[in-house]
Amino acid sequence: MLFQSDEGKEPLTVEIQTEVDIVEARQKGRMFSNCLGFSTLDQARIITTISELSRNIYKYTTTGKIIMEIIEKQPEIGLKIIAIDKGPGIKHIQKALESGYTTSGGLGVGLSGVKKLMDEFTISTQEDHGVNIQVIKWKKRNK
């Protein structure tokens, strides 16, 4: 299986500093989700999530990373995506999770959209210490 070392499943990390890194993260997310057998619709959800999270890193911080890893919970297999940055953090986290809220003049569907696209969503932030977002998309195993 792709993305597997001798010790087992290894997380895949993409450092986000430029727009090219966003494209790389999307491409790797597509490969990862395809290899795990996610439906075309779920692959689109995963890729959109990676795009939103990596774009937030690029737009609001100087550097961060996207980490993708395979996780298992019988009878499901999942793709966990972690977005970590060391930026200014999110001052009003509850507002940031509301549909329509924006600090950059965009559509305001970023984090609220990510939350809707994925099966699990957790966020932690500290002002001046960055943001850590973890999301999971689950898939029933093929028999």
What characteristic shape results from the CA principal axes? Answer: globular
Care to count the β-strands?
7
Q: Give the SSE order as H and E letters.
A: EEEHHEEHHEE
Distance between the termini: 17 Å
Provide the low-confidence segments as ranges: none
* Structural class computed from helices and strand pairing: alpha+beta
Q: Indicate the percent of residues in helices.
A: 25-40%
Please outline the major beta sheet: 5 strands, antiparallel
Helix count, per DSSP? 4
Mean pLDDT: 86
In spatial order, strands of the major sheet run: 3-4-5-7-6
Description:
The structure is a single chain. With 143 residues, the chain is an alpha+beta fold. Helix content is 35%, strand content 33%. The chain contains four helices and seven strands. The chain has helices spanning 19-35, 40-60, 93-96, 110-117; strands at residues 4-5, 8-9, 12-16, 64-73, 76-85, 120-126, 130-140. A five-stranded antiparallel beta sheet has the order 3-4-5-7-6, with helices on one face. Strands 1-2 form a two-stranded antiparallel sheet. α2 (40-60) packs antiparallel against α4. The longest helix has 21 residues, at 40-60. The radius of gyration is 15 Å and the shape is globular. The two termini are 17 Å apart. The relative contact order is 0.18.
